[in-house]
Design a protein that fits this description.
single chain; about 200 residues; alpha/beta; Rossmann fold; about 15% strand; disordered C terminus
């Protein structure tokens, strides 16, 4: 489970993992916001209208969902996640703070990773630099980011996104370790060796 403040680079880290680690299954969230330049429907997000999103909520087809930045809704389709987990695959959910809290309730054994910026100044620079939001939207996102940064202690581990590829590799390593630990806890135990017969 990967979450962090707006503009920290969650999408970039996920894209690096998708490119370099095909063994990792990455959940594709659905959202009611319009695609940004370069985003592909079904790859970066599933772009849906409000009516379709309402249907997903009513049918309980979302593992989690939330209104983000007081504008668009985001959610994680439930069935693909359940299937990936059942197959024992490395599965990555890139979600927001509200979604992470919901998933914590239903999947408490999952590894929750907080993606942090090197500094607050760098986070602001990244948000302004990408140029995809209006001034009003940037102000709203930075207000949200303050609350998101304060939630870091809720997570199991923090990865600092100083360089995208390094952060991606660190995250994959953490995921692999978590999966191996879970398998060792739930797997069959080794039988104890038979005790030798008593001597006369």
């Amino acid at each position: 489970m990967l979450a962090g403040p707006t503009a920290v680079g969650k999408g970039s880290v996920s894209a690096a993992i998708r490119k370099r680690h095909p063994e990792v299954w990455i959940s594709v969230s659905v959202t009611t916001r319009p695609p940004r330049p370069g985003e592909v429907d079904g790859v970066h997000y599933g772009f849906v209208d409000d009516r379709r999103f309402d249907e997903l909520v009513e049918r309980d087809e979302l593992l989690e969902w939330a209104v983000v930045h007081q504008t668009a809704r985001y959610g994680t389709p439930r069935v693909p996640v359940d299937e990936a987990v059942a197959e024992g695959r490395l599965a990555l959910l890139e979600i927001d703070l509200q979604g992470a809290r919901q998933v914590r309730e239903s999947m408490p054994d999952a590894l929750f990773v907080f993606l942090a910026p090197p500094s607050w100044e760098e986070l602001v620079r990244r948000l302004v630099g990408r140029g995809t939001e209006s001034d009003e939207q940037r102000v709203r996102r930075l207000e949200t980011a303050v609350r998101e940064m304060a939630a870091e202690p809720e997570f199991d581990v923090t990865v600092v996104n100083t360089a995208v590829h390094a952060a991606a590799e660190e995250l994959v390593g953490l995921m692999g370790g978590s999966l191996r630990a879970a398998s060792s806890r739930s797997g069959p135990t080794e039988p104890k060796p038979a005790e030798p017969p008593p001597t006369e």
